[in-house]
Structures are given as C-alpha cells and as structure tokens.
Amino acid sequence: METAKPQPAKPQKADLSAQIATAIRDAIVEGRMITGERLPSEAELAEQFNVSRPTVREALKRLAAQSLIRTQRGAFGGAFVNRLSYEEAYGQQITTSTLLLSMNGVSFETACEARYALERACTPLAAARRTPDHLATMRAEIHRQGQPGLSDESFCASDVTFHRALVDAAGNPVLSYQLAGAVEAMQPLMNMITFTARSREAIVAFHTGIADAIEAGDSTTAETALEELAAYTLELGRDVMQARAAR
Amino acid sequence: METAKPQPAKPQKADLSAQIATAIRDAIVEGRMITGERLPSEAELAEQFNVSRPTVREALKRLAAQSLIRTQRGAFGGAFVNRLSYEEAYGQQITTSTLLLSMNGVSFETACEARYALERACTPLAAARRTPDHLATMRAEIHRQGQPGLSDESFCASDVTFHRALVDAAGNPVLSYQLAGAVEAMQPLMNMITFTARSREAIVAFHTGIADAIEAGDSTTAETALEELAAYTLELGRDVMQARAAR
DNA sequence: TGCGCGGAAAATGTCAGACATTTAAATGTA
DNA sequence: TACATTTAAATGTCTGACATTTTCCGCGCA
C-alpha cells in the first residue's frame, strides 16, 4: 500500500542544505540574529542540524550568495551576519533586473515605460534637493555627450551616469537603490536598441532641459522634459522595431 | 626574503567556489548559456575547473540561491539555467529591501518618502489602464478596512493588498516588480510604527479618494490623494517618534 | 503487436574523514 | 616592554564512498 504521487500535503521536499539555509535566513530576517553576530562554527551547526559539514557549508554558501553572511578564515573566524550595504544591494538589484528583462522577453515599450515612470518619481525631490555636486556631474556628462569623437559605448555610459546623478540628486538612498535596476539595467538595454537611430543633439537638448529645470528647482518643467525624452525614446524604439520587422 | 603583506596587485583572493560561481554566472548573464540549457554534470565541471566535486557543488548552490539555476535529480537530471520568473524576482526584491531597511537604520521619513514617490510613479498608468478586476480588489479591501472588528494585522495586510492592486493596475509587470520592495517591505515597516496612532477612518477616506480617481481615470486627483496620504503618514510617524523621544 | 514491469545507468544528495591554509591569541624570549 | 614564535581554532579543499531519484531500455507476457 502506498499513497503514490498525489501527496499535495507534503510541501517539504527541499534539500537539507536549502532547509538549513532557510532556517538561518529566517533567524536573521526575524532579528533573532543581529548584524555582526557570529554564527556557530560549521562543525557546531552540523551537530545542531544533525547533518554533515559539507551540507552545512552548502547552506552557508547559499546565504553568502545573498550577502546575508560573510565568512572569515582563521582562529576566531567563522560566519558573521552581514550588514547588507547599499552597494551590495545595488549590485543584486542590477543583476536581478538585467536577468529579469533578458529572460522574460520584456518588450521595449514595457521597459521604457517602467524606467521613465520611476525616474519621474524622483524629479520633484531632485528639484528640491539637488546639490552643486549633482548639478556639476549632470553638466559634465552633458558636455561629454556633445564631444564629436565620442564612441557609442562612452555615450551610453555617460547617459547612465547622467541619469544616475539625477536619481541621486533626490537625496534618498532608498530611492537610489530602487532605481538602480531601472537606470543601470534598463537604460543600457534601451541604448542598445536605439543608439543607431538616435540623434545625439536631441538627447543633449533633453538632458540640458532637465538639468536646467532641476537647477531652477522647477519640478514641473523637469517632469515635462523627462516625458518628452521618454516619448522620443519610445518613438525611436518603435521605428527600429518596425524597420526590423519590415526586413 | 618575502614580500609580506603589501601586495596590492593581488585582487584574486576569492574562494574557488566563488570564482567558479562567478565564471558560470558571467556565462549566463552574457548569454553564452541560454534559459533551459543544461550545465555539465558536477563531475564534469569539477574536471573542467580542476577542483573537487564539493567545491563545484558549493558554487552551484550559490547560483541556485540567486535563482540563476535549478537542479533536478536522477538520470538526465542536472543543473539547468533557470528562467527567472517575476515571482522569484519579487521574492528576492522583498527580502533584499526588508534587510536593507532594517540593517541600515533607515529613518521613517526616508522610507516613507521613497515609498510614496515610487507609488506616485504608477498612478498615471493605473488611471489609464485599470481593469474592473483591479478596481474590484481595491474596493473590496476598502470595505474590509471599514469593518469594526478587524485586527491590526489584518488591517495592515489589507493595506498592502490595496496598494499592491494600485501598482498592478498600471499593467506593467516590470513596474510591479520594482515596486514589490516598496509595497511589501516598506509599507509593513511603516504600519508597524503608525498603527497605534492612526485613524482607520482617515485611511479609508484616502483610499476611497484614490480608488475614485483611478476609476474616473483622473490621475491628477489620484496623485493629490496619494500625496495627502503620504503627508498624513509622515505626520503620524513624526508624532510617534516625538512621543517616543519625549519618554 | 502492444503494454507494463523491472533493472541498469546517470545524475544529484549526503556522509565521513583527512589535510591545507589562514588568522589571531597566547606564549616565550631578548 | 617589545618582538618573535608557537599554537589552536576556524574555514577551505580533497578523496572516496554510499543513498536516492529518475529516466530509459529491454524483457516478458497477454
């Protein structure tokens, strides 16, 4: 006698290492372990969970991959609960966003729409809080974008830096984190599609309009300029797609 | 004779398993391996990279933790390049956001500001595209929030569902993904602070105003209502903080 | 001929033990 | 006291073995 396959009431089919990773992750997320705290040694964890050391190690590597812990060799080393820094979070956000876009056949329209909607959310704050530093970065990148001999790669990189400065000008690190995926993953994707067709002069003009408005603290004008840039990009993308389809 | 510590030209200090994970990750991100493709078996990878199987396994677990690969046991099983689904990406986004907020002492103001700025980015699209389904969800949650006996936990959960529906109404899955962290990580954080002080009637009134505007396709009114909700929440948070400080 | 059943094979999952390496504390010595 | 040395506790890595899962293929049976 056996119940065979239909066992819907058995969701616990995960690997031991996955279970252990989940258990430790929960302890961290729920605050039972605090930043900087040292986990038991691998040998102790193996004993606690009643598994072998390699299994524990696999679990720890899973957590390390999510920047939840960091390990240190040597005496008094071990695994420590990691403080997730903004930079690490940025990196994960960008990787995840890039993969999500490339693996789900996200259309140009969808990505473009999301990207500009998010950036638009920053402009009122940026207009209110921009520092001379942010403005200087934006102006410098605009100037760079006007140089005649600039390669396409450099122009794209400068484009990203410009928008990054705009986002950072909002002075909200959480917002900057959230926008990292939009700017650093979607913008390059869009550049890759439109760089053949676009007019650098037009882009520079839009960027100048945005920078002027931000400098003047005029969020309405900045939003309008951003929307125009979005519309221009969208149109370019449609043209390119149409040309590709016609071929 | 020995060069001792000062060896700044040696950036390769990572574990073997980390190096291998990076190598495979790059292959995936750069498109040299496509979704669904099978990786070599652990034994083959061990030979290719000239390491032992446990080391390879640790590398694979790192990748699995990021949902980059999925493994399958049995003959013709192995590790396969995983298609990162929206759901998996949501989950990672929420986990990362939650940790980032809790581990970096993000202030109530900062989180609140970012959260409402992001949500504001969705309202024009939501006003233009909302379906009867989304409206029904929003109305249902508003109704639930008006029930007298509702527990605080249920009210908070309903709050999240309401805002989630608003975000989804924009009809842009990439935007929904980006907002997942804001709605599901920041909203609960804010609820935890303000739930003692807030007036449910006021919240319901704001929600109703938002839903009405979205239903009418009036994005300006919706944004205004959202901004009022943001201001109310911010004020509540400041009051609570002040009360705590005074004690 | 067609169907089901069972073994073989290939892969991941797990374990045990050993050795290598790194690091900081403890100890010893000038 | 200051410096060099030893030592111990960890992680990092390797080897080999066994357990488990799953698919494929061929065999036998109707």
Can you describe what's shown?
2 copies of one chain form a homodimer. By secondary structure, chain A is mostly helical. The first copy, chain A, is 70% helix and 3% strand. Chain A has 10 helices and 2 strands; from the N terminus they run αααββααααααα. Chain A has helices spanning 16-29, 42-49, 53-65, 86-103, 108-129, 132-145, 152-168, 173-194, 200-216, 219-246; strands spanning 69-72, 78-81. In chain A, strands 1-2 form a two-stranded antiparallel ribbon. In chain A, α5 (108-129) crosses α7 (152-168). The longest helix of chain A has 28 residues, at 219-246. Chain A is elongated and about 65 Å long. Residues 1-11 of chain A have low confidence and may be disordered. The first copy, chain A, binds a DNA duplex (30 and 30 nucleotides) through α3.
**In oligomeric terms, what are we looking at?**
homodimer
Q: Indicate the radius of gyration of chain A in whole angstroms.
A: 24 Å
Average per-residue pLDDT of chain A, rounded, comes to: 90
Strand order of the largest sheet of chain A: 1-2
Number of helices of chain A: 10
What's the helix and strand layout?
2 copies of one chain form a homodimer.
Chain A: H1 16-29, H2 42-49, H3 53-65, E1 69-72, E2 78-81, H4 86-103, H5 108-129, H6 132-145, H7 152-168, H8 173-194, H9 200-216, H10 219-246
Antiparallel strand pairs in A: 1-2
Helix pairs in contact in A: 1-3, 2-3, 4-8, 5-7, 5-8, 5-9, 5-10, 6-7, 6-9, 7-8, 9-10
The first copy, chain A, binds a DNA duplex (30 and 30 nucleotides) through residues 15-17, 41-43, 51-55, 57-58, 71-79.
